[in-house]
Amino acid sequence: MKVYFLGTGTSQGIPVIGSNHPVCKSTDFKDKRLRVAVWIHWDNFSFVIDCGPDFRQQMLASNCQCVDAILFTHEHSDHTAGIDDIRPFNFKQGDIPVYAHERVISNLIKRFEYVFETVNKYPGAPSIQTNEVIAGQSFIIGDKTVTPVNVMHGNLQVFGYRIDDFAYLTDVKTIDEGEISKLKNLKVLVINALREEAHNTHFNLKEALDFITLVQPEKAYLTHISHVMGFHEEVQKKLPPNVFLAYDNLEIEL
Ligand SMILES: [Zn+2]
């Protein structure tokens, strides 16, 4: 299984529009971060977790040829705003199965009404087939079992996903003990770390590192990173030996 980091930035991305912050001005390619998403693929199955506003650019950069499914973590725009750009995959493959919490599906129906139109739907509009993800219920994609992990993003419920010994959790601020028990014996954990300063709805760096100590994966990658976290190279030096800042277009193999 390969995991390709399509984007590793927080909601505004890096550089931030109009910002003169030194990290936004950095020429290091690792300091350029699109909105968070990952592309996961094995043998002949390929899917993405989240489909944010940079989806088109991410599909071009990664040379992804096929999207067999989209798993959504939650409905915020930095995770969903790219839906219109799935159309090239629709033209090649037909409807794309989407997996999300019932609340997220209702939100998509409201915000992307034209996608769900049943009468006189515009022929070029995106087409998806919805599948409800239920807390505590695993489901199958391709030939693998996906275990949803329930986390809280402030007051908003968010799903993380575990597949084999890999787990992807983003936009976490708190997580119940029962859910943490689903994260035993991981080879790789991806977890959000916004910046050093505390934040109401996202783990800061210390909270993410404490969480990694608690879960004890072999390796951990940090994502959903703000420009105020600092330069990639300098932040990386401060991290424990098994913890890495993810960066855009990084691919890892499990
Ligand atoms: Zn987010």
From TrEMBL:
Matching Gene3D superfamilies: Ribonuclease Z/Hydroxyacylglutathione hydrolase-like (3.60.15.10)
SMART domains recorded: Lactamase_B (SM00849)
Domain of life of the organism encoding this protein: Bacteria
Residue stretches making up the Metallo-beta-lactamase domain: 35-224
InterPro entries per the UniProt record, alphabetical: Metallo-B-lactamas, RibonucZ/Hydroxyglut_hydro
Protein name: Phosphoribosyl 1,2-cyclic phosphate phosphodiesterase
Origin species: Flavobacterium micromati
Source taxonomy: Bacteria, Pseudomonadati, Bacteroidota, Flavobacteriia, Flavobacteriales
